[in-house]
């Protein structure tokens, strides 16, 4: 079953086309990594799928709910996806647990007791239960990003979107975040991930998408695409990130 379907999705900022005719389908349980040069539209595509940006053209459907269709609000679609950003965006004055409790309280309408149980279950899942009472500033970058993953999971999304989740981290802190993501993938979560971590892509992704200048240029299996790059442009790109 398709969880994400984009058809001829396009996005302009003023006169500048940023996404052009994106056709993309993601099936339940798939782990899809998106790569491409800076400015190719990767973040904008995730933001459109998370309904943070209105589309200029085409259609977007998440779990059978079509954006813009009568009776389907942007909010209803947004709550099907959880997003993790490069900058963790945790509330600095709230503890790790309180950060994770916000979504269940506000979006899912859970009581404090329920939300607390949800938060503790998810903090345990990312290995951080013992840090639940710490403020973000007392945690390492890798721990903060794992709290951000728990927070995104807390509204029980069908799809998780990651935009360069390890790019702001020191190299020695990246592994723990990638491991948390790999665990999620192994549990069957549907994931769409923008990252330059090619080893992660090779180990965890079913599909690799190469974007360039607002278009999907390649969409295939990571192993074969790395072993035998389907274009000179992609080969050149790999040479820069590997
Ligand atoms: P990537 O994530 O692949 O680096 P982005 O999606 O961030 O690319 O950006 C794609 C293009 O869209 C870039 O040229 C960028 O300058 C432009 N862009 C992104 N957001 C905006 C915005 N809010 N207003 C105008 N241009 C934007
Ligand atoms: Mg980006």
From TrEMBL:
InterPro entries: AAA+_ATPase, ABC_ATPase_HisP-typ, ABC_transporter-like_ATP-bd, ABC_transporter-like_CS, MetN_ABC_transporter-like, P-loop_NTPase. PROSITE patterns: ABC_TRANSPORTER_1 (PS00211), ABC_TRANSPORTER_2 (PS50893). Gene3D superfamilies: P-loop containing nucleotide triphosphate hydrolases. Coiled coil: none annotated. It is found in: Cell inner membrane. Residues 4-238 form the ABC transporter domain. One of its GO terms (molecular function) is ATP hydrolysis activity. It comes from the Bacteria. One of its GO terms (cellular component) is plasma membrane. It is a peripheral membrane protein. Belongs to the ABC transporter superfamily. This is Glutamine transport system ATP-binding protein. It comes from Aquisalimonas asiatica.
